[in-house]
C-alpha cells in the first residue's frame, strides 16, 4: 500500500503514515509491514529485508571487521558497536536511570538496571522455578542443576561455572595482588582477605554492644558471654510463665 501526497513529491506509507522522498525507500520500508525478506544468506539461510542488512550479517561468516578504534586498535564488524565501544574511552554514559540517576553506556544495561527498582524478574528456571532479573544470571544458575563448568584454567585445569570466578582464580598463578592495605601497605589476592586484615588495625567490633577487641578470639569469647546471658534470660522467662500457669484457681 502506498500513495503519493499531492503536490509535494513525498511518498507516504498507508500503514503507518511515515513519509519518504523516493518510491524506492518507501518500498523498502513497507517490508517491515509485509514481513518480506527477499535477501537470504547462502551460509546459514538467515533472511533480511534489505541487501545492506544481509551484507552486514555476512561479516559474521567472513570475519570482516572494517571499523577500528583509533584509541586502542580494537576492531568491529558494525559501526554501532564501535560507537558503543568508544564510550569506554570517552566516559560517555548517555542513558540515565530516572529513579536513582545512575548512568550507563548502553540502553540494554539501563533496562537491566531498572529491574532493581521495579523488582521485575522475567527469567525463570524451568527446573526449580527460581526467577532472575538477568538472562545471564539464569544461565549461571542452571549450571547448579547441570553441573556444567565451561570455564577452565589453562594452568591447572580447574573448572568454574562463571568467567568471573576463573578470572579471580588466575591470580593464584599470576601472583597478582590488586588489593592493598592503606595502613601498612600489605597486598592481597582477594578483597575479602583485605577486609579481614584491616580488622587487625581497626579491631573486631561486637555487633551486639559495640565493644571492640584487638583479636578475633577475644571477640569470640565475648560473644559467648552474650549467648550465655540470652539463655539465662530465656530460662527465667520460661520459669515465670510456668509459675503463672500453676497458680491455684
UniProtKB/TrEMBL annotation:
Q: Where does this protein chiefly localize?
A: nucleus
Superkingdom to which the source organism belongs:
Eukaryota
> What UniProt keywords are attached to this protein's entry?
DNA-binding, Metal-binding, Nucleus, Repeat, Transcription, Transcription regulation, Zinc, Zinc-finger
* C2H2-type domain sequence ranges: 11-38, 39-66, 67-94, 95-122, 123-150, 151-178, 179-203, 204-231
**In which organism is this protein found?**
Pundamilia nyererei
Any one Pfam family match given in the protein's UniProt record, by short name: zf-C2H2_6
GO CC terms in record: nucleus
Name the protein family: Belongs to the krueppel C2H2-type zinc-finger protein family.
Recorded protein name is Zinc finger protein 525-like
Database matches in InterPro entries: Znf_C2H2-type (IPR050758), Znf_C2H2_sf (IPR036236), Znf_C2H2_type (IPR013087)
Q: SMART domains, per this entry?
A: ZnF_C2H2
The molecular function terms in GO held by this entry are: DNA binding; zinc ion binding
Where does this polypeptide localize? Nucleus
Q: Which Gene3D superfamilies match?
A: Classic Zinc Finger
Amino acid at each position: 500500500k502506498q500513495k503519493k501526497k499531492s503536490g509535494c513529491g513525498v511518498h507516504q506509507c498507508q500503514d503507518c503514515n511515515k513519509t519518504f522522498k523516493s518510491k524506492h525507500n518507501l518500498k523498502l520500508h513497507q517490508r517491515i509491514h509485509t514481513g518480506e525478506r527477499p535477501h537470504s544468506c547462502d551460509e546459514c539461510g538467515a533472511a533480511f529485508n534489505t541487501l545492506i542488512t544481509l551484507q552486514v550479517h555476512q561479516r559474521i561468516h567472513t570475519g570482516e571487521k572494517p571499523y577500528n578504534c583509533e584509541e586502542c586498535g580494537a576492531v568491529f564488524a558494525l559501526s554501532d558497536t564501535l560507537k558503543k565501544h568508544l564510550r569506554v574511552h570517552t566516559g560517555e554514559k548517555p542513558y540515565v536511570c530516572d529513579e536513582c540517576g545512575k548512568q550507563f553506556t548502553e540502553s540494554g544495561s539501563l533496562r537491566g538496571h531498572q529491574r532493581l527498582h521495579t523488582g521485575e524478574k522475567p527469567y525463570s528456571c524451568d527446573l526449580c522455578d527460581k526467577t532472575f532479573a538477568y538472562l545471564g544470571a539464569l544461565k549461571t544458575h542452571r549450571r547448579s542443576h547441570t553441573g556444567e563448568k565451561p570455564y577452565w584454567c589453562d594452568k591447572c585445569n580447574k573448572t568454574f561455572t562463571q568467567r568471573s570466578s576463573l578470572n579471580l582464580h588466575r591470580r593464584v598463578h599470576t601472583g597478582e595482588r590488586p588489593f592493598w592495605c592503606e595502613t601498612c601497605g600489605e597486598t592481597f589476592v582477594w578483597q575479602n582477605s583485605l577486609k579481614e586484615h584491616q580488622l587487625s588495625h581497626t579491631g573486631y567490633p561486637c555487633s551486639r554492644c559495640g565493644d571492640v577487641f584487638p583479636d578475633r578470639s577475644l571477640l569470640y569469647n565475648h560473644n559467648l558471654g552474650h549467648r550465655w546471658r540470652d539463655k539465662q534470660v530465656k530460662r527465667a522467662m520460661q520459669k515465670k510463665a510456668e509459675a503463672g500457669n500453676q497458680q491455684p484457681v
